[in-house]
Write a structure and sequence with these properties.
46% of the residues lie in helices and 13% in strands. With 85 residues, the chain is an alpha/beta fold. The radius of gyration is 13 Å and the shape is globular.
């Protein structure tokens, strides 16, 4: 069951700092996080979904199809943002 951290109305910067403090990756369709990754570097790392609006099932399938790329990205100390199409 998902946990709520009370962040549904948080600003991008608050989400960024929460992800950084908790060693999370950010998975998003929001270009702003990709920009922050470029400016601030990681952590946190950003997975930028470039697939347009999709169902949850389609997004889950997209992530599963790219699991090896995501795993390599996670351990690459030089990478801050991964774009997935």
């Amino acid at each position: 069951m998902p946990r709520s951290h009370g962040l549904s109305e948080a600003t991008d910067r608050v989400l960024w700092e929460f992800a950084k403090a908790n060693d999370f990756l950010i998975v998003t369709q929001d270009v702003d996080f990709a920009g922050m990754a470029g400016l601030l570097g990681s952590p946190p790392k950003v997975i930028w979904l470039r697939s347009g609006n999709q169902s949850t099932a389609a997004i889950a399938d997209l992530l599963r199809r790219h699991v090896q790329t995501i795993q390599a990205f996670e351990v690459d100390n030089n990478a801050a943002c991964l774009e997935i199409y």
